[in-house]
Every structure is written in structure tokens, then in C-alpha cells.
Amino acid sequence: MLIVSVSFLLAGCGGEERFKETTSIEQFRQQNIENVFDKKTTTTSGYLPSESVPEVDGDDYQLGPGDLLTVKVFEAEELSAEVRVSSRGNITLPLLDDVNVANLSAAKAEQKIEDLYRRDYLVDPHVAIYIKEHMSRQITLIGAVNKPGTFDYIARRRLLDVLAMGNGLMPDAGTLAYLTRQDGETGENITYLINLADLVKNGNMAHNHVILGGDVIFVPESGHCFVDGAVRKPGTYPLTTNMTVAEAITVAGGLAGWADDDKIKLVRFRGRGTERQVVSLSYADLQAGVGDTLVLKDQDIVYAESSASGKLFSGAGFTIGFMGTGVSFRDPSN
User: Fold this and answer.
1) Rounded distance, CA 248 to CA 227, Å?
2) How far is it, in rounded angstroms, from Cα 328 to Cα 66?
């Protein structure tokens, strides 16, 4: 009778598989070979790989509309003035009227004003420009940073400097950053893709690009994966850089005692109107490192199926009743 009772329990507690395999591991790999850093698009509306971010000098702040300047002429104090750059990029100075200083550094603007005074009024003028208010060239930092906002661009800065101004990245920051910059010749905005993880975690300074006034830097939140089924801590977890199936299971506390070692599923949804992909791995695959080769994407599901025998022997509590006929069972997954 005891054997019959256990047999009924064993048959009833296994249940059907939650996800049926639809593709092999090799087919899954081939269908999902893609890397955002392999994109070669050069359109202004597209994202470019980090190697395409143009390197610039960026040594000095470039003057622009709204900036408040103090212009000092040492040889003739009466020519000194406090002026604001107009919407057209001009400043008005004594004797010179309008002088266009748009997109000039303070040093170049000083040289231009000296040349104009030297041409008609002064023998050897010396001009100094002090930027009292930086209004035209600001850096905007948004997304998964601790202190998003708009910051004055006063001097040469690189990406890590700007992230420090935002008090660093939030824990759920993604692995990429988007840099939007206006093209100086066409006036169009171009967005570049930067490998933030390689910069921050690996210290690859090739991604630490010079940031210009007017740049907008967006750090999106990381994606998430779902780990469910026969694991010790099922739940939603943020994706880290190149997070794999094996790592996701580890984060979720590892496989539970009632897991089916031969049915660990990776489920990927490929968008509306397309069939979801389900690839099945075994515990032996994980031990052999196969689980370290399958990198997760946003919204992926890692699901450990339960085995009938595993549930039974992990959750059964045997109570021998009269004539040895009593058996009790507790589902360990509940």
C-alpha cells in the first residue's frame, strides 16, 4: 500500500514541463549572433559604435549665445566692458560695434579683438576675456546616474569627469551610454554608442571620450532577466555585463533540490508575431561551461523545471499510520 501511495504521489507532483524546447543550443547561438558594436551605420539618426566618436581637442570653452563676458583692454580702461553674447553670436564693444565671437575660445576671441583694435585704434593692445556666466555650452547628463542635470562646461572634460559630476552611476545603470552631439558643419544631431561597461569596469580609456559643451549623455537603466522555477531565490534580476545563464542561476541562489537537472530552459521572446525561442540545457551543460556561453538579453527567462522525484524526496514527510498506510507530502516549491 505504501509503495502504491508513493507511486501516485510521484506521478502527480511532477506536472508537465512549463516550457517546451523549440531549438537546439547551436541553432539558438546562430540565430542570436549580433553585437551592437558591429553596427556600421553612419546615418545621423542611427547609433554609431564608440570607435566612431570623433576625437576633438576640446581644450577651451567655445563662446556662444547667452554667455556673459568681461572684456578688459589693458591699454585703455575706457574700452573695457561687460557684454553678453547675442543670439547671433555677437558682442558690442566701444569703437568696434559688433564682433562675432561664436564658437571661438576665449583665447581666440581675445586675439580677434586685439587685431581689430590694432588695425584702427591702438598700437599694441592686450585684451583679456573672463567668462562670467557660461550659458551657451552646457553638458546634460540624464538617466541612471545619481545626480542627473545640466552642468556648466568650463574647461576640457572627458566622459568619466562628467559621470563624476553626476555623482556616479546608479546600481541599475546599463552597460551602454548614448552621446548626442550637434555636428558643427551640418547642425544635425548625431548619437554615438559608447561601451560604458568596458570603460568603467575594465578601465579601457579608449572609451573615455572628450565631452563638448552642448553634448547630451544618456545612461539607460540595465535590462532585466527573470529566473524562476526550481531555484532557491526566484525573481527579477538586473542584467550585468555579458550576464550568462550560469550566472543568472547563481544569482538566484542555485538550483533547488527538486530541479530537473536535464531541463533548465532559456526562454527568449523575439517580438510580436514571432515564436519564442526555448533552448534546453542540462546540469552537465552548466558544469561543462555551456551556460557561460549563452549571454542573456533584456526580458529573457531562465526557468528550471521541476522533477517528480526531486519534489517528492525534497518535500515528502512520511507519517506511518495504522498498519503503515499513512503518507503525507509537502510541495517544497510552495
Assistant:
1) 7
2) 79
Of the pLDDT bands very low, low, confident and very high (cuts 50, 70, 90), residue 119 is very high
Q: How far apart are CA 164 and CA 185, in angstroms?
A: 30
Residues written for the chain: 334
* Cα–Cα distance for residue pair 86/285, rounded to 1 Å: 67
The region, left, alpha or beta by phi > 0 then psi within -120 to 50, assigned to residue 202 is: alpha
With CA atoms as reference, report the closest residue to 249 among 283, 205, 298. Answer: 283
Q: Which helix (H) or strand (E) holds 71?
A: strand 68-73
> What DSSP string runs through 109-144?
HHHHHHHHHHHHT-SS--EEEEEEE--S-EEEEEES
CA distances from 140 to 45, 117, 167, 181, 219 (A): 19, 37, 14, 11, 11
Helix axes 2-14, 308-315, angle to 10 degrees: 120
Set of cell numbers at residue 259: 530541479
Distance CA 323, CA 318 (A): 14
10 Å CB burial of residue 3 (0-12, 13-18, 19+) is exposed
Residue 51 pLDDT class (50, 70, 90 cuts)? very low
Could you report how far apart the first and last alpha carbons of the chain are, in Å?
27
267 phi and psi, to 5 degrees? -115, 125
Q: Residue 164 corresponds to which cell in the numbers above? A: 563624476
Q: 228, 234 in Cβ contact below 8 A?
A: yes
Q: pTM of the entire structure?
A: 0.55
